[in-house]
Amino acid sequence: MATRGAAAAFVIWKHRNNPSLRSISSHHFYPIFKPQIIPKGCRYQIRAIQGESVDRGTQSKNNDEPKPKPENWKIKMLYDGDCPLCMREVNMLKERNEEYGTIKFVDISSNDYSPQENQGLDYKTVMGQIHAIQSEGNVVTGVEAFRKLYELVGLGWVYSITKFEPIGKVADAVYDFWAKYRLQVTGRPPIEAILEARKKNKVETCGNSKACKT
C-alpha cells in the first residue's frame, strides 16, 4: 500500500510540473483514487434494466391482443337458452368455439328467433330435441347433431364411439329419454304452458316486429 501511494504521488507531481502534460485534464487520474466512476456504471446498468422492462411490457401487451377469429361458420346450433342444464354445455362449446369459429349459436328462446331463417324449424319442433343446421342446409338432430358440433371444435373423440353399433342405438335411446323429460327434470312447466306464455310475451313486448308474427 505504501508503494502504491508513493507511485501515485509521483504521477501527480510529474503531471503538475511537466508543462507538456498540463493540457491533459486531471480527471484521467481520478479513477485511481476516487469512486466517481461507480455512479456512472450504475447509471448504465439502470438504463439496461429500464430497457428490459419496456421490452417485457411490450411483449405482455402483444400477448393480450385478441386473436383473429374465423368468420365462416360450418354449422348452426339451435339451443334453448332457458334450459339451465343445456346452457352448461352450450357455454362450454362457445368457449371452445372462440378458437375455431365454426359454430353459429342461435337461441330459440329469444323473441328474435325466426323459423324462416332456420330451415323452417319452429320453436315447438326445436324444443323437442337438439337441432343443428349445416352450412349447406342439412338438418341434423339428436346425438348426430352433438357429434357434428363436437367434431368442429376439436372434441370429436367425445362422441366418436356413438358411430358404432349397438352403442349408437343405446346413445340415441338415452338422449331421447332425456329430451322427452328434460322440462320436468329442470323444474320447468310443460311445453304447452311454455308456448302459451311465449305467445303472450311476444304480443306484449315485441309490438309489430317480425318475430311476433312467426
UniProtKB/TrEMBL annotation:
<protein>
    <recommendedName>
        <fullName>Thiol-disulfide oxidoreductase DCC</fullName>
    </recommendedName>
</protein>
<feature type="compositionally biased region" description="Basic and acidic residues">
    <location>
        <begin position="62"/>
        <end position="72"/>
    </location>
</feature>
<dbReference type="GO" id="GO:0042246">
    <property type="term" value="P:tissue regeneration"/>
</dbReference>
<dbReference type="GO" id="GO:0015035">
    <property type="term" value="F:protein-disulfide reductase activity"/>
</dbReference>
<dbReference type="Pfam" id="PF04134">
    <property type="entry name" value="DCC1-like"/>
</dbReference>
<feature type="region of interest" description="Disordered">
    <location>
        <begin position="53"/>
        <end position="72"/>
    </location>
</feature>
<dbReference type="InterPro" id="IPR044691">
    <property type="entry name" value="DCC1_Trx"/>
</dbReference>
<dbReference type="GO" id="GO:0005739">
    <property type="term" value="C:mitochondrion"/>
</dbReference>
<dbReference type="InterPro" id="IPR007263">
    <property type="entry name" value="DCC1-like"/>
</dbReference>
<dbReference type="InterPro" id="IPR036249">
    <property type="entry name" value="Thioredoxin-like_sf"/>
</dbReference>
